[in-house]
Write a structure and sequence with these properties.
Its EC number is 2.7.7.7. It comes from Christiangramia forsetii. The chain is α+β, with helices and mostly antiparallel strands and 352 residues long. Helices cover 41% and strands 20% of the residues. The strands form 4 sheets. A 4-stranded antiparallel sheet has the order 8-11-9-10. A 3-stranded mixed sheet has the order 2-1-3. Strands 4-5 form a two-stranded antiparallel ribbon. Strand 4 and strand 5 form a beta hairpin. Helix 4 crosses helix 5, helix 10 packs across helix 11 and helix 12 packs antiparallel against helix 13. It is globular, with a radius of gyration of 23 Å. The two termini are 43 Å apart. The C terminus is likely disordered.
Length: 352
């Protein structure tokens, strides 16, 4: 979906259409969750601080996120996907992979299917979507950004190698800012430069990711579209309007976060063994502290108790701007064990 959260806000509020809109907190400590294309022209991006966003775009309009509304529309969009194929792998509320090799419409053209789906989304929701079409998930993902907004790009099998060779190295999935800078130092600027390097050379400099880079630049990516993605972790975090230096205030915030996690765990019917506390200090340095226990938990009191222990594990080195808690090592990682999940929640219910 194109600028999904911001587009939904513009859809529901005609006064916002054609204007620079940012979904997210407008306070000095807020962070932009999504930006309309009008705002992006001024360099406003997701994950940017509200202060910088406002500095870049003085006329920027901030709106509070409405995730229930976004989920509602996301559900409508997925219903359209399932009209064409059952092989749908959601990545987030606004993005998914579809395998249409065999599809319910009997249409041999993935390009035409993508156009039909985009038209159906526009008709049903009033929103624009973009698509990438190719031989595997990696190339389709890259192609989906080529003609944004409200466009699509097909990379035919015979075009794959040339397409990847011309690609800026920063466009490759798995190449972030740090990796890109390292590649630049090694003289790797495009896919063609990357392809000249041997697998041994790439693994020497990038570890296991080296094999990934070696394969994808040759159009090799064997990951299937998985309709039922297994959740690996679940968590919540909060950024504060003012830095917190008192551990008493931190505990209050952690209690609120633990309550939110319990709600999400219950809704997802999962529990976890590993609790991780995330701390971001006022100087933007980040620290995580984890503990793994020998049984699954999904109760806020147990989560909070372990989070407290992690908080007091060592003295704070600075005031804190963000706290977060996450659970991993979930009981979904070895398959959907409904009976085991039922026992976990019953046990917790009786314990408290």
């Amino acid at each position: 979906m194109d600028a999904f959260y911001a587009s939904v806000e513009q859809l529901d509020n005609p006064e916002l259409r054609g204007k620079a809109v940012a979904v997210g907190g407008s306070s000095q400590r807020g962070v932009v969750s999504a930006a309309s294309y009008e705002a992006r022209k001024f360099g406003v991006r997701s994950a940017m601080s509200s202060v910088i966003a406002k500095r870049n775009c003085p006329d920027l309009i901030f709106v509070k996120p409405r995730f229930e509304r976004y989920k509602e529309i996301s559900g409508q969009i997925r219903e359209i996907f399932f009209e064409y194929t059952d092989l749908v792998e959601p990545l987030s509320l606004d993005e998914a992979y579809l395998d249409v090799t065999e599809n319910k419409k009997g249409n041999p053209s993935a390009t035409l299917i993508a156009k039909q789906i985009r038209d159906r989304i526009k008709e049903k929701t009033g929103l624009n979507a973009s698509a990438g079409i190719s031989i595997n998930k990696f190339i389709a993902k890259i192609a989906s950004d080529v003609n944004k907004p409200n466009g699509q790009k097909t990379v035919q099998p015979e075009e794959v190698i040339a397409f990847l060779e011309e690609l800026d190295i920063r466009k490759f999935y798995g190449v972030g800012k740090v990796t890109a800078e390292k590649m630049y130092r090694l003289g790797i600027f495009t896919g063609k430069d990357l392809k000249l390097k041997s697998e041994e050379y790439l693994t020497e400099h990038f570890g296991k990711s080296g094999t990934h880079f070696y394969n994808v630049v040759r159009g090799i990516h064997l990951s299937e579209v998985k309709p039922h993605r297994i959740r690996k972790s679940l968590g919540a975090e909060r950024t504060f309007n003012e830095n917190i230096s008192s551990e008493i205030f931190m505990l209050e915030r952690l209690e609120n976060i633990a309550e939110e996690i319990e709600r999400r765990l219950t809704k997802s019917k999962v529990a976890g063994k590993t609790i991780t506390l995330k701390i971001k200090y006022s100087d933007f340095t980040q620290q995580t502290r984890s503990r793994t226990i020998n049984f699954y938990i999904a109760n806020k009191d147990l989560i909070l108790e372990i989070a407290k222990e992690l908080l007091y594990q060592e003295k704070m080195k600075n005031s804190v701007r963000l706290l977060g808690i996450s659970l991993s090592n979930l009981n979904t990682e070895k398959g959907d064990k409904k009976e085991e999940q039922k026992e976990i929640f019953v046990q917790l219910k009786f314990k408290f």
